[in-house]
Amino acid sequence: MSDTPVPVTDDATGVFVEHRELMFGVVYNMLGSVADTEDVLQETWLSWTARNEGAPLDGVDNPRAYLVRIAVNHALTRRAAISRRRETYVGPWLPEPLVAGGEEDGADDPALRTESVSLAMLVVLESLTPLERAVFVLHEVFGYPHTEIAQIIDRSPAAVRQLAHRARGHVHARRPLYEAHPRVRREATERFVRAAVGGDLAALMEILAPDVTVWTDAGGKRKPAALRPVHGRDKALRFFGSYARKGGAGGLRLDYRRVNGDDAVMLFQGEEPYAVLVLDLTPDGDRVSGVYVISNPDKLTHVRREEA
Which parts of the sequence belong to the RNA polymerase sigma factor 70 region 4 type domain (predicted)? Predict the structure, then answer.
């Protein structure tokens, strides 16, 4: 048998490209990592092109369903590798953010390539088992019926319904249904950033909830960072004082962006991304109940500074 690869037809390539954005969204929400998602899509492409000796469309009645099934199962396999990496990760782990660029950015912007699942929701999804998360993402985010999910993950519809029930219970127990209006979120983000970077402790005291929690994901590669979540307003004030000192030295530039569909802020040091800050608000929208700070440079490789 010849080792020469069989060329894949243009039709088969077109089908893959047509559904690539759907696969990106499903896999990213299962993994919380852009880099791992791109690797899974590459594995999916290789599986697709190897099918039927380079004729993947032969015998496939529903290419969309077939491709999603391949991608989901590759993603489930990749979850095991991610879990092993997490065991030696330095400090808290947060998802890799999808950061939208400016108005001139097109479809290549990864933040425009998936359903908008907030960063806070992705953190909650980490509490699910891989199968629970796959079912939740497919059903709650992308609207797949349980019967179709059963075919994708090779489980019975009854088993899928049970997984879906457990996943919803976990998510609703950890994530309030309340979502702040975008204008309220933007105003709160701007108030918080002005106070934090400007070193206005009185303003920070006013906007931070007493039980605020700060998660900082630096992967051991950036300072300031906390090796554990910072709980309580007093500790949060001390933590953000270090950002004020860094910003006061003229070292940080601010860019307001949409991160996983929500208004957030990027901090740049020169031309390089320094950190992403995403806020959680109290139900009344008046105070910050959670702050997610992602400064691990490995998780900011897809971010570029806006042209002035």
Answer: 120-170
pLDDT tens per residue, the chain (308 residues)?
A: 445 555 667 788 899 999 999 999 999 999 999 999 999 999 999 999 888 676 778 878 899 999 999 999 999 999 999 999 988 999 999 999 998 865 444 445 554 456 668 999 999 999 999 999 999 999 999 999 999 999 999 999 999 999 999 999 999 988 765 677 888 888 999 999 888 878 888 999 999 999 999 999 999 888 777 889 999 999 999 888 776 665 544 577 888 999 998 889 998 888 889 999 999 998 878 899 999 999 999 999 888 766 54
Contact partners, residue 111, CB within 8 Å, separation at least 6: 98, 99, 100, 101, 258, 259, 260, 261
The SS3 of residue 274 is: strand
CA distance 34 to 31: 8
SS3 256: strand
Distance of alpha carbon 85 from the chain centroid: 17
* Strand residues in the chain grouped as ranges (E): 208-217, 230-231, 253-259, 262-269, 272-281, 288-294
- CA gyration radius for the chain? 21
Q: How far apart are CA 109 and CA 199, in angstroms?
A: 33
Closest among 245, 261, 251, 259 to 294, alpha carbons compared:
259
- Distance CA(53)–CA(51), nearest Å, equals 5
Q: What would the two tokens of residue 14 be? A: 């077109």
d(CA 196, CA 132): 38
